[in-house]
Each structure stands twice: as C-alpha cells, then as structure tokens.
C-alpha cells in the first residue's frame, strides 16, 4: 500500500481561493473598515482570525453579509492581513508595522502578532 | 497512514483558476 502526498496542494488551493476573491466569485461577506469595503469568503476569514471565527460561529451573526470593524482599525493594515490570509505572505512594511500589529491584535491573529513583535525587536537599534 | 509508504508528488495538485 502506498499514499501519494501532493506537497503543494495547500498552496494550490489557497491560490485558487485568492483568484475566486479577486473575481468576487462566491465571496459571501463585505468587511467595512472605515469607508473601505473588502469582499471575502467567511470560511477563509474564520480559518485565519479568532475574531471572525467567533463572529461566524455565532448563530445570530453567521448570516450577516456585511461586518463593520472598529473605526480605529487601519484599512491599509487590514488589507495587508487579508492578503496574508489568502497568500500566506505577510508584507511587513516598516511604516505600517504598528497598524498591522494592532489590526492583528484586534482580529485575534496571535501568530502574526508574535511575528510583528519579532520584526519590531529586530528593527530596533 | 502508519506503515504506508508515502510518495511525494511535487507537481500541481488541482486545476488553476484563471485570474480574470
């Protein structure tokens, strides 16, 4: 007996999910951050963020098709984290690091928060 | 999969959805 392990399966599927997002296919929620709107798939959001997991596992909220985030959340920071969810690549720009980290704290993305902490420490002379 | 030999396949695993 043997088993074939397709080593790039996870990244191939994620790439396709990102293509679906970019073409707005089967996206089922709009995230409002200040005045900016981001379309996404609830399943991807809740797989990556503790906050979205809590929201979409709540039977009263799981059918919402729009979610407004705290107005203090930075839309640029959110955009970077949303791209990370769909690509596994986190663009850590020095000018946006605090916005990214604070948004990651708000979204309960603990591993990203740890990574931001390490990035800040390593950049600190 | 204990005791089962695993063969690694490094090629694409699913079709590629076009970007637009």
Strand content of chain A: 5-15%
Number of helices of chain A: 6
> In terms of quaternary structure, what is this?
heterodimer
What percent of the residues of chain A sit in helical stretches (DSSP H or I)? 40-55%
Number of strands of chain B: 1
Radius of gyration of chain A: 16 Å
How many helical elements of chain B? 0
Tell me the layout of helices and strands.
The complex is a heterodimer of chains A (125) and B (20).
Chain A: E1 2-6, H1 9-22, E2 29-33, E3 36-40, H2 42-48, H3 50-56, E4 66-68, H4 75-87, H5 97-106, H6 110-123
Parallel strand pairs in A: 2-4
Antiparallel strand pairs in A: 2-3
Chain B: E1 5-9
What does this structure look like?
The complex is a heterodimer of chains A (125) and B (20). Chain A is of the alpha+beta class and 125 residues long. Chain A has helices at 9-22, 42-48, 50-56, 75-87, 97-106, 110-123; strands at residues 2-6, 29-33, 36-40, 66-68. The termini of chain A are far apart. The model of chain A has no long low-confidence stretch (mean pLDDT 96). Chain B is 0% helix and 25% strand. Chain B has no helices and one strand. Chain B is rod-shaped, with a radius of gyration of 14 Å. At the A-B interface, strand 1 and helix 1 of A face strand 1 of B.
């Amino acid at each position: 007996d043997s088993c074939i392990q397709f080593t790039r399966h996870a990244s191939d599927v994620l790439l396709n999910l990102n293509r679906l997002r970019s073409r707005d296919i089967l996206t089922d929620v709009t995230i409002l951050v200040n005045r900016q709107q981001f379309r996404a798939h609830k399943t991807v959001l809740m797989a990556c963020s503790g906050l979205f997991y809590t929201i979409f596992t709540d039977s009263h909220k799981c059918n919402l098709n729009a979610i407004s985030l705290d107005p203090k959340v930075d839309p640029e920071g959110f955009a970077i984290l949303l791209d990370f969810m769909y690509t596994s690549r986190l663009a850590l720009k020095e000018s946006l690091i605090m916005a990214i980290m604070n948004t990651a704290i708000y979204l309960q993305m603990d591993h990203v928060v740890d990574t931001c902490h390490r990035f800040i420490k390593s950049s600190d002379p | 999969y204990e005791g089962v030999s695993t063969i690694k396949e490094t090629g694409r695993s699913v079709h590629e959805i076009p970007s637009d």
